Amino acid sequence: MAPTVLHLRSETKHLEHRSALTPTTTAELIKAGYIVNVERSPERIFDDEEFEKAGATLVPEHSWVDAPKEHIIVGLKELEEKDFPLKHVHVQFAHCYKQQAGWENVLARFPRGGGTLLDLEFLVDEHGRRVAAFGFHAGFAGAALALEVWAWQLNHSEPFPGVESYPNEDALIADVKKAVKEGVETAGRLPRVIVIGARGRCGSGAVSALKKAGIPDENILDWDMAETAKGGPFKEITDSDIFVNCIYLTSKIPNFVNKESLQVPDRQLRVVCDVSADTTSPFTPVPIYTVATTFDKPTVPVDGLTSGPPLSVISIDHLPSLLPREASEAFSHDLLPSLLTLNDWQNSPVWARAKQLFDEKVATLPESALQK
Q1: Could you give the CA distance from residue 222 to residue 101 in angstroms, rounded to a whole number?
Q2: Does the pLDDT at position 102 exceed 90?
């Protein structure tokens, strides 16, 4: 039986430096009998030579399109918006299962070409828990940026400037501590931060960043299901300086905050970091903005407020790329046991569940999307 070939594609999303495979996990896959082709990439945090030393074969960027149909294409973020049908099995985040804007066009490319999407966001074990997620580093990066935006807003009238990836966590925290110090000099106090979803991967990352940046426990409201059970909106959010939303939703619940709840004269809230970044999802519990932000333009203002300080939203959907090496190593390590079963993915429970979900979502596509 011929060995299974995995093809790691180069990411095309702007400023996306993470990778689903790392040199470490690539070496493990090759040891297990896989062939791993790795597209050269100018953006990936790992040098091409690191993969070559691990035993991978380097191939040209974007060559996945013409790869044999039986090769499995491994990526991270969504593909570029094109119309050509997709013939391969793709392992990636596609952001098209929760009725996001344009979801039908993204999803329909797979059945139109006879391909399959095995979406990393919905790769779960027998208990429904995700086998790998970037949640911790998403929360960590989001909270770190939120602190910087809080301090910036206190001392500047212009929008928060663009940011770039950091080589490591220590460098990020050093910058955040410097910003917080400047904010405290203006405000006369440390910020009060509420984190909703604080017990999960994402929320624990957010709380970790806050503490490493010097925010004391008494300034951190770490909420989870028990605290939100009564249903929002919550005044505790508008009483805080920063709100970090770490809740992942697949159905609608009462909003945590909305435009009406923000229209209070004693609002302290200046920064919202919506780590879930489900900007166009009908399930968002933070329906106060409609624009996804980027590392180039990290914030968007909330318009129409008649009182209180300015309010900025961070809604970057690839926050872990602020710490791309550490985030990739952690994610790929957790994903490795599942990757090692891709040679028989149809019979592997984790991948079979992903295929079943794909089939269910395809069945909801309008006929017009399938006929392009």
Answers
A1: 31
A2: no
8 A C-beta contact, residue 43 and residue 16: yes
pLDDT at residue 194 in the model: 98
Give the ranges where 65-132 is alpha helix by DSSP (H). Answer: 103-113
- DSSP per residue over 175-232, as a string? HHHHHHHHHHHHHSSPPPEEEETTTSHHHHHHHHHHHHTT--GGGEEEE-HHHHTT-S
Asked if 60 and 30 touch (Cβ cutoff 8 Å), the reply is: no
Considering only CA atoms, which of 61, 58, 96, 91 is closest in space to residue 76? 91
Could you tell me if 39 and 67 are in contact, meaning their C-beta atoms sit under 8 angstroms apart? no
* CA nearest neighbour of 166 among 356, 315, 319: 319
Structure tokens at 286: 């933070």
Q: How far apart are CA 244 and CA 273, in angstroms?
A: 5
pLDDT for position 11: 96
53 is catalytic: no
For residue range 131-147, list pLDDT tens digits in order: 999 999 999 999 999 99
CA distance 362 to 22: 31
The CA distance from 143 to 243, in Å, is: 9
Catalytic member of 77, 87, 90, 137:
77
Task: Please count the other Cβ atoms lying within 10 Å of the Cβ belonging to residue 317.
Answer: 20
> Global pTM?
0.81
Read off φ and ψ for residue 335, nearest 5 degrees: -80, -20
The CA distance from 313 to 299, in Å, is: 5
Q: How far apart are CA 54 and CA 8, in angstroms?
A: 14
Q: What is the 3-state secondary structure (H, E, C) of 241-294?
A: CEEEECCCCCCCCCCCCCHHHHCCCCCCCCEEEECCCCCCCCCCCCCCCCCCEC
Phi and psi torsions of 137, nearest 5° = -75, -25
DSSP state of 324: H
Residue 12, pLDDT score: 93
Residue 233: cis peptide before it, omega within 30 degrees of 0? yes
Is residue 184 exposed (0-12), middle (13-18) or buried (19+ Cβ within 10 Å)? Answer: middle
- The residue annotated as part of the active site, out of 87, 88, 95, 318, is 95
- Is 95 catalytic? The answer is yes
**Strand, helix or coil at 8?**
strand
